[in-house]
Amino acid sequence: xxxxxxxxxxxxxxxxxxxxxxxxxxxxxxxxxxxxxxxxxxxxxxxxxxxxxxxxxxxxxxxxxxxxxxxxxxxxxxxxxxxxxxxxxxxxxxxxxxxxxxxxxxxxxxxxxxxxxxxxxxxxxxxxxxxxxxxxxxxxxxxxxxxxxxxxxxxxxxxxxxxxxxxxxxxxxxxxxxxxxxxxxxxxxxxxxxxxxxxxxxxxxxxxxxxxxxxxxxxxxxxxxxxxxxxxxxxxxxxxxxxxxxxxxxxxxxxxxxxxxxxxxxxxxxxxxxxxxxxxxxxxxxxxxxxxxxxxxxxxxxxxxxxxxxxxxxxxxxxxxxxxxxxxxxxxxxxxxxxxxxxxxxxxxxxxxxxxxxxxxxxxxxxxxxxxxxxxxxxxxxxxxx
Length: 386
Prior knowledge:
By secondary structure, the protein is an all-alpha fold. 74% of the residues lie in helices and 0% in strands. Among the domains are: 74-152, Recoverin, domain 1 (Orthogonal Bundle), CATH 1.10.238.10; 187-336, no CATH class; 349-377, no CATH class.
């Protein structure tokens, strides 16, 4: 042990010496990089300003094209059709004062802030039902106090859709793709229900890994409180409802996988979030079952609803029950992990030599403990992302 201690001391001196030499060699390069950043700062800023000017020009061209379409007969009709869903932020089929207030926030439309929405609704609400129909909406878009309102909304929508497409193309991990799919749903859930049906069918027909479907469900539930949604509707409820309508058995299997604590933790989600997600997804299923019962809308592929034999009182209690069970299962799973971790640590550092190495090289704390401590303090970075 004396010889080992001497070896450790010599190694520490050598490591310290080499690290000092490395920093001495890196210092000139780092200083040069700092000089480049300072010298190139103005040039980079100039390039960014030119880019911003170019973007402004493109946006103005876009507005001009939209203005021409506005007076182009069939083009105008198509533009109204495409835009109505954007302004119907709640997905009710009509545009209310609340919808216009939401649009002012979601699309940063200053012309619709304050008392303007209520004034415009009152001005063009011909049947006095406190909302705008599609015909009344056409009159609304021609109001001179909100010039180019359709172009502004469509431009924001197109930009967000392009961003999602680029992110999906660049995504490497399943969790990254799932996040972008959820953002896509946020955009199209109100505007284009046909596309929602297409993607919901792919998520539930078994052509994609069930783990991916479960990840999308989880991400939609986690996005419930996202302040940056481009809709006030519930994308998760719409999508899971459509999935349950088309493929109820597969949808329930995906939810069952989502309830598995091992799967949840392996996907990199925070342990504290599982019970909330399970409660939300279960509530979506209950709503979907209610819709299926009222409309008999199940597909021919799954004519028997798995939840159709459950009474209404039990269905109402299911979300809270699922949440409690998820909490209890997660507590047990984390306890088992902790016990297994303690046993692993004890086995790993059981010999006197390993204990000396742990004390002298790592200060008494293993690398795995440091990594776990850092990830938990950082908010639980996913294992996949790490």
